[in-house]
Amino acid sequence: MSNTAHDQEWVRKPGEAANGTACTLDQYQAMYSRSVDDPDGFWAEQADRLDWFEKPGKIANWSFDPVDIKWFEGGKLNICHNAVDRHVAAGNGERVALIFEPDDPAAPNRHITYADLQREVVRMANTLKKMGVEKGDRVTIYMPMIPEGAFAMLACARIGAIHSVIFGGFSPDAIAGRVEDCQSDWIVTADEGLRGSKKIPLKANVDAALAKVAAKAVLVVRHTGGDVAMTEGRDHWYHDLSADVGEECPCEQMDAEDPLFILYTSGSTGKPKGVLHTTGGYSVWTETTFRYVFDYRPGEIYWCTADIGWVTGHSYIVYGPLQNGATALMFEGVPNNPDHDRFWQVCDKHKVNIFYTAPTAIRALMREGDAHVTKHDLSSLRLLGSVGEPINPEAWRWYHGTVGHGKIPIVDTWWQTETGGIMITTLPGAHDMKPGSAGKPFFGICPQLVDGDGMVLDGATEGNLCITHSWPGQARTVYGDHERFIQTYFSTYRGKYFTGDGCRRDVDGYYWITGRVDDVINVSGHRMGTAEVESALVLHPKVSEAAVVGFPHDIKGQGIYCYVTLNSGEEADDVLTGELRQWVRKEIGPIASPDHLHFTPALPKTRSGKIMRRILRKIAENEFGSLGDTSTLADPSIVETLVEGRLNR
Ligand code: 6R9
C-alpha cells in the first residue's frame, strides 16, 4: 500500500470522511447521539460484525444500583474464532497477523500469517488440554513479549479457560499472590525474557513463586535457550508436550457473559484486584473501539508498544487488532536499546502506519534529541496514539511535530483496565485535537463530572470523573470479591461508576484528565497503589511505619516518594536506603522501586491516628508554602521536621 496516498488523505481537514470507517464530525455526532439514545440498536449493529454461534437475545441489561452488568445475553461466541479462524475462513489466511520484532535488532523477525496463527493457537490449545486445563480453569501467563504470549492468551480463550496475564517485570511474590488469589493451577511461562539485552529469569521467578503456592503444571516455552531447572512431573517443555497434539481444536461456544480473563490492577487500598472481563461485551468493545479510533485500513502495519501484561496489550495488541484482521507488530525490546532511536528504527524498518505508545516513552525519547528521529524515514506513519497517563503539551507537541512531521493526527486515548477499552478520545477525521486533552466520549460513553459530595457539575467545569451508563467493555466484577467491586467503583457516588480520576471539561466539551484523585499513583503509565508499596516497606524488619505518595517526575510522570519510620534503635544510612529499594523491588518488582526514601522520626497524624497524606504530598512536591491547616495534627511540630528533612536532601 502506498504511503503517499495516506499522506494525501491525511492532509484532509477534520470533518472530511476517511474511508468510510472513521467519521466526519457530523457522523460522529449522529452516531454518538444514536449510541446513547438507542444503545440496544446501536450495539446490536456493532455486534453484527462479529461471528456468533447464536445471536444475543438481549443487548443491554444492567444496573449500577444494585450493581449487575450484562450485555448480549443469550449470545454465544468465541473471541479466538473472531480474532483468528473467521479471517482464515474468509480467505485471508495469508494476511500477516503478527510481526515479531525481537529485542536484538540483528535477530530474525517473524511474520505470522492468520493461517500460521490458527495452527499455533490450536497447537497451544491442545497442549493446554493435554495438561488437563478445562473450560473455566484459570491459567496464569507470565511471558516475555513474544508471539507465544499472544498464542497462549488466544488458546485459553479458544478452550474457554480464563487467562490471568502477569507482567514479566513482576516479582515471584507478586506472582504467588496472583496465582493464589484466582487459584490458578496452570502456568505458562518461558525460560527467560529479554529486554534491552538483559535476561529476565522468568522460569526461575515462577519456581520461586511456586515455593509459596502450589500449581499442578508449568508449561515452559524455550526462548533464549538459557538453563532452567525443570521439576519432574510438574514442568513441561512446550516443544516436547506439543509434539504429538492434534491439528483440530474447535472453538468452545462461550456464553456472552462467560469470563474471558482476569487482569490484576492496583487500587487505593489492599492487594491488587483481579478485574474480570467477560466474552461478549469485551469482544464487541475492543473490535469497535479499535476500528473507529485507529481507523485501520487493510494492509496497514499497526504497532502498539505496550506489554501484553497490561490491559493495553490485551485490548490493542491482541484482541482489538486481530478481531479486525489487522497486522500488529509485537516488540520484545525497549525504546533505548541498543540506542535511543530503536522505536523509530522499527517504524522505518517495518513501515509502520499507526503507532500507539505512552507519554513516559515520548518524554524519555524527546530528551535525547531530534536526530534520533530525523535520521529515519517515518513517512509511513499516518496516525499516532497516546495512552496511560495525561500527556503534557510539551511532549504532545514534540510527538506531533518531530515524530509526526506536524501533520499526523494524534489520538490521546483515556481508559482503564476496568473499562476494557478506549472511553474518551478524539476520532481521526472528526475532531480537532487539543494538546493535552483526551477529547470526546466514544460511542455509548456518558461521562459526568461531580464534586466531592456527588453534586453534578454542568458545563465547563472540573470535578471527579464518573460514567453514568454501562458500556459493553465494562469489567463485571473483581474475581472472587464482588463486594469489593461494588465498594471500589460504585459506592463513592451511588449509582455511578467512579473512575478515580479528576477531570476538567472545557467550553467545547473536551475532557482533560488531571490524574488520579485517590491513593493510586501513575509511574511511567503503570498503576501503583501507594498502599502496596507501604505494605512492602513495613514487611522489612527494620521498618516501623511507611507512607508513600507520588510526586511530579520529568520522565515517569510521577515518581515514588516514601516516608519511612524505623524501629527504635535502627539507624538510617545509605546502606539501608539501598537495602529498602532492593526490598521493594523484590516484593513487587522493579517498577515499584522508590525514587526517594525519606527517613523521619514520625509521620504527621491526626488525633484519631490517620496519616495526613495531603501534607506528605505537598512536602514531596516541594510546596511548603501551601501546607494548609496543620492544627488538627496530634503533633504539629513534625511538619517542620519533615520540611527540614526534605530541604536537606
Ligand atoms: C489503559 C490504562 C488507568 C489510569 C486512568 C488514568 C490514567 C490512562 C490516560 C490516562 C490521562 C490518558 N490514564 N490513559 N490519563 N490521559 N490518555 O492505562 O489502564 O493501567 O488501568 O490505568 O491511567 O489515571 O485511571 P490502567
Short description:
Residues 28-83 form the Acetyl-coenzyme A synthetase N-terminal domain. This protein is an alpha/beta fold and 649 residues long. Helix content is 32%, strand content 24%.
Radius of gyration of CA atoms, rounded to a whole number: 24 Å
Please state the overall shape, judged from the principal axes of the Cα atoms.
globular
Record field, number of beta strands: 33
- Helical residues, percent: 25-40%
> Order of strands across the biggest sheet?
12-11-8-6-7-14-15-26
Q: What is the typical, i.e. mean, pLDDT? A: 93
Give me the secondary-structure category: alpha/beta
Distance between the termini: 56 Å
Strand content: 15-25%
**Major sheet description:** 8 strands, mixed
Name the poorly predicted regions: 1-21
What ligand molecules are bound, each kind once? ligand 6R9
How many separate helices?
20
Characterise this structure.
This protein is of the alpha/beta class. The protein contains 20 helices and 33 strands. An 8-stranded mixed β-sheet has the order 12-11-8-6-7-14-15-26, sandwiched between helices. It has a 7-stranded mixed β-sheet with strand order 5-4-17-16-18-19-20, sandwiched between helices. It has a 5-stranded antiparallel β-sheet with strand order 24-23-25-27-28. Helix 4 (79-92) runs parallel beside helix 11 (311-323), helix 10 (279-294) packs across helix 11 (311-323) and helix 13 (359-366) crosses helix 15 (393-403). It is globular and about 75 Å long. 52% of the residues are buried. The model is unreliable at 1-21 (pLDDT under 50). It binds ligand 6R9. Ligand 6R9 is lined by residues 265, 310-312, 386-390, 412-417, 438, 499-501, 513, 516, 522, 527. Its EC number is 6.2.1.1. It is an enzyme of class 6 (ligase). ATP binds at residues 388-390, 412-417, 501, 516, 527. InterPro entries: Ac_CoA_lig, ACAS_N, AMP-bd_C, AMP-bd_C_sf, AMP-binding_CS, AMP-dep_synth/lig_dom, ANL_N_sf. Its cofactor is Mg(2+).
